[in-house]
Design a protein that fits this description.
Largest sheet: 5 strands, parallel
CATH class: Alpha Beta
Number of strands: 8
Number of domains: 1
Bound molecules: adenosine-5'-triphosphate
Keywords: ATP-binding, Nucleotide-binding, Transport
Distance between the termini: 28 Å
Family: Belongs to the ABC transporter superfamily.
Oligomer: single chain
Helix content: 25-40%
Number of helices: 6
CATH topology: Rossmann fold
Radius of gyration: 17 Å
Shape: globular
GO molecular function: ATP binding
Organism: Actinophytocola gossypii
Domain ABC transporter: 3-216
Strand order of the largest sheet: 5-6-7-3-8
Strand content: 15-25%
Mean pLDDT: 90
């Protein structure tokens, strides 16, 4: 049981270069894996592939043996949730925080949201009325409300000051340790990953050498 990418290849169009070329990676439940690499090498793309937001042209991704997608038949949310860097962009600006959280997990009450993540006084505000750090904590709470098996945390603290950064990571690590959630933490900040992850892999180590001339049948 794990979140797995197996020999995954992806490009954003037939005329585009391969962004992910032969990536293989596994994240175990309860494990925090740091994915490091410079800007533009495909870290976010690999995260989206692992979360089922993109489909590989070759290879496969799975979460505990099944495709990383919501199950429309049963209504089960995607077991792989993504928390993005730009917290405010991930929220509908016309919805209050309480509505944003309720939409993530229909039937859940605001009382189920950890108040250390989202204090009750934020629930009645709109996204533009909360700070970047608070917005990121709302996004984290929203992801956790779906009871995910895995989280892809994509540069979640890159836009935050050091104090908010530490707070977001402390809250995330507490939640994932409590619930045994596996995390892929994506960042170009290696010292940060070394501080928060159980192990850090460089994207160059999990992909094959970039070989744009390799023919891949799509
Ligand atoms: N929707 C898209 N359409 C076309 N190309 C894209 C798209 N999204 C990303 N790319 C390209 O794919 C490559 C990898 O982008 P990606 O965002 O995965 O890199 P990254 O390592 O996460 O970078 P960063 O650390 O700057 O966020 C880049 O060259 C980028 O321009």
């Amino acid at each position: 049981m794990s979140l797995v990418a197996e020999n995954v290849w992806f490009r954003y169009g037939r005329r585009h270069p391969w962004v992910v070329s032969g990536a293989s990676l596994a994240v175990e439940p309860g494990e925090v894996v740091g994915l490091h690499g410079p800007s533009g090498v495909g870290k976010s793309t690999l995260g989206k592939l692992l979360a089922g937001l993109l489909t590989p042209q070759r290879g496969s991704t799975s979460a505990d043996g099944t495709p990383p997608n919501p199950d429309r038949r049963t209504g089960r949310p995607n077991p792989v949730q993504v928390v993005h860097q730009h917290a405010h962009l991930a929220m509908d600006p016309l919805w209050k925080i309480t509505t944003i959280l309720a939409e993530a997990a229909p039937g859940s009450a605001p009382a189920e949201v950890d108040p250390s993540l989202v204090p009750p006084n934020l629930l009645d505000r709109f996204p533009h009325e909360i700070s970047g750090g608070e917005a990121q904590r709302v996004n984290l709470a929203r992801a956790l409300l779906t009871a995910p098996r895995y989280l892809v945390a994509d540069e979640i603290s890159a836009s935050l000051d050091p104090i908010s950064q530490a707070a977001v990571w402390r809250l995330l690590l507490t939640a994932v340790r409590t619930h045994g959630i596996g995390v892929l933490a994506i960042s170009h900040d290696r010292p940060l990953l070394a501080a928060v992850a159980d192990r850090v892999v460089d994207i160059a180590d999990v992909t094959g050498t970039i070989q744009e001339t390799v023919p891949v049948v799509t």
